[in-house]
TrEMBL record:
Residues 192-215 are annotated as: Disordered. This is DUF317 domain-containing protein. It comes from the Bacteria. It comes from Streptomyces smyrnaeus.
Length: 271
């Protein structure tokens, strides 16, 4: 059995002048096809799954996945859209603490950067937490140290929301605060997370209005993270930190984590 992880990159794409006159749907499809070629070049795609052609089982590494699908919407000129998304299938018995959010995002961003200038505004990821297992503490320690190298004088507000299907796990009134505490523990001094205020919870800046990859999901937690920079890598970090914090607080059902900011939008202050 396989379970899918979905990652979507949101923002505005300004295509290079020499590519602006072509058919955008055709260009989008060809660029995303090339992204899959790049996946193979990185060694992140496992076209035969975790068995050889003769049936011998291979050792699973979390950066590899089975078959995948992809798409994107470039129709909203100068408007925020889901520029590229990828669905990767991971065997349910390949239980690892991390899902391939980083390589999936990196591949999509690489593809978009080849055809124009991207104003990145959000990353949305569907995380099937039920197939994860194990301890990724060392990985998160390394991530925290990496992002701590950015200037401590800089500050960017980044919204992190968690959406899940209704369940008893989210009924306690302090559940979102428990998850926030676990998120902060993983962020350390590299960023600060706080429960979103009532003014913040009414909006999720930078995210395109797309159909949720999780049927019946509703927002269950909303944090504002004060980080030192805003990049796709930072967004991946916050998605993974949130997913691991959810696991640590006893959540094992699928969730959608959205990380967004308008820090790089024209007319918005950047520090």
């Amino acid at each position: 059995m396989h379970c899918g992880t979905t990652v979507g990159v949101h923002g505005i794409l300004d295509r290079h002048p020499w590519l602006a006159s072509g058919d955008q749907d055709e260009l989008c499809a060809s660029v995303l096809d090339l992204a899959l070629v790049r996946v193979d070049a990185y060694g992140w795609h496992a076209p035969h799954g975790w068995r050889t052609r003769t049936g011998k089982k291979l050792f699973h590494v979390p950066d590899r996945w089975l078959d995948c699908d992809k798409g994107g919407d470039w129709s909203g000129r100068n408007q925020i859209g889901e520029l590229a998304w990828m669905l990767a299938y991971v065997p349910e018995d390949a239980r690892q603490p991390r899902l391939p959010v980083l390589p999936m995002t990196r591949t999509l961003v690489d593809a978009l950067d080849r055809v124009g200038t991207v104003t990145f505004t959000a990353l949305q990821a569907y995380l099937p937490l039920q197939i994860t297992a194990g301890d990724a503490t060392d990985d998160f320690d390394d991530m925290r140290e990496w992002f701590s190298l950015a200037s401590p004088a800089a500050s960017v507000d980044i919204h992190v929301t968690v959406s899940a299907a209704p369940s008893r796990a989210w009924e306690p009134p302090d559940e979102a605060a428990r998850v926030r505490d676990a998120v902060q523990e993983r962020l350390g001094a590299a960023a600060e997370a706080e429960i979103a205020s009532s003014a913040d919870t009414s909006r999720v800046p930078g995210r395109a209005q797309t159909r949720s990859p999780l049927e019946g999901a509703r927002r269950t937690a909303h944090f504002v993270c004060h980080a030192r920079e805003w990049t796709p890598d930072v967004a991946v970090w916050l998605v993974e930190v949130t997913g691991d914090a959810l696991r640590a607080t006893g959540h094992s059902a699928p969730v959608v984590v959205t990380v967004s900011s308008t820090a790089l939008m024209p007319g918005v202050g950047r520090t």
